[in-house]
Specification:
five-stranded parallel β-sheet, binds NADPH dihydro-nicotinamide-adenine-dinucleotide phosphate, binds oxalic acid, 9 helices, about 15% strand
Length: about 325
């Protein structure tokens, strides 16, 4: 038994140290030191390079080191073995914190106060509404969406949600499917997107959708927070919606092209808050522990957790 580890764009060293620390007994291989491909039974990966997972005849499980699996499902060379994606309290907490922070920032008009401060202006005429006057609508009610909803409710926001299938979450209205999207959008002041990227969701955050959001709410226009995936949104449509006033402000952690190109107007738009895809980073400690639990489950003959359903795309 050997584990192949590869994470594009992350510190390889830090992850290998964590693997050695938590599982000194485990035979860990890397792309540069793969040895006999027949030994590899498990792979813990994030955006593996093309070809890395092909040609591993003993591979039994792929573990995605992130919650999203579009980096795997989009590849033609993906072997036909189960994929477990990380669902972990550390990652979930990070996303909840990001969503709560951004929602409060928009509620409290912090960007406006920042601008006033830069102008040395005492803007005491700006009086923000309170959370119970504002409805947050969460697209995607999975591990991350459900926790974000819980935190937003604790902060006093009205919260509604939308998912592919009917979800039942205490204290909030859950809408389901394309036929209930309109009703959900029409009541939403702050739209929080935590959808996976699939053929159905690609480009869903577009002009048509923005125009269906509640336009006369207490924030002076709807706000978008997207921490799902960049290709869920059309960057150009966001800029146009800000221009025409269909969106009041946006917080974006993800972008159609990452890193966000230097020339993108999103960087210095006064109504755009940019973070560099860090809303919920995968912590080596938490994810290595998760991966080891999945390997142990398989050793005991139990199915791994959080298996991806390939045909639905997440
Ligand atoms: P889950 O798989 O647990 O939840 C996905 C949710 O989206 C489910 O509620 C699902 O509906 C819903 N959904 C999927 N397709 C559709 C559709 N066509 N129409 C309506 N709803 C749909 O995922 P997580 O909550 O764990 O993660 C969500 C995404 O967050 C990840 O896929 C990833 O892209 C992103 N992410 C971003 C990070 C960042 O740092 N920015 C970090 C981690 C993740 P149903 O409940 O019916 O299945
Ligand atoms: C993830 C991410 O999917 O970091 O976990 O984007």
């Amino acid at each position: 038994m050997a584990l192949l580890f590869h994470a594009t764009g992350w510190s390889q060293e830090e992850w290998l140290e964590e693997l050695a620390h938590q599982a000194p007994w485990l035979d860990v291989r890397t792309a540069e030191n793969i040895g006999d491909p027949e030994d590899i039974t498990h792979a813990l990966v994030w955006k593996p390079p093309a070809g890395l997972l092909a040609g591993l005849p003993s591979l039994r499980l792929i573990i995605s080191a992130g919650a999203g699996v579009d980096h795997l499902l989009s590849r033609p060379d993906l072997p036909d073995v189960p994929i477990s994606r990380v669902v972990d309290p550390d990652l979930t907490r990070r996303m909840g914190e990001y969503v709560a922070q951004q929602a409060l920032m928009h509620l409290r008009r912090q960007r406006d106060f920042d601008a006033c401060q830069r102008r040395r202006e005492w803007c005491s005429d700006i009086v923000p509404p309170t959370a119970p006057e504002v409805t947050c609508g969460i697209m995607g009610l999975g591990a991350l969406g459900a926790e974000s909803a819980r935190l937003l409710r604790l902060l006093g926001f009205r919260v509604a949600g939308w998912a592919r299938t009917r979800r039942y979450i205490e204290g909030m209205r859950c809408h389901a499917g394309p036929e209930e999207l309109n009703e959900f959008l029409a009541a939403t002041d702050i739209l929080v997107c935590l959808l996976p990227l699939t053929p159905e969701t690609e480009g869903i955050l577009n002009t048509d959708l923005f125009r269906r959001l509640r336009q006369d709410g207490p924030l002076g226009g709807p706000v978008l927070i997207n921490a799902g995936r960049g290709r869920l949104q059309k960057d150009a449509d966001i800029l146009a919606a800000l221009e025409e006033g269909t969106l009041k402000a946006v917080s974006l952690d993800v972008f159609e092209t990452e890193p966000l190109p230097q020339e993108s107007p999103l960087w210095n738009h006064p109504a755009v808050t940019v973070t560099p895809h860090v809303a919920a980073v995968s912590s080596p400690r938490a994810v290595v522990a998760y991966a080891l639990r999945q390997i142990a489950r398989m050793e005991r003959g139990e199915p791994p957790e959080n298996l991806v359903e390939r045909q639905r795309g997440y």
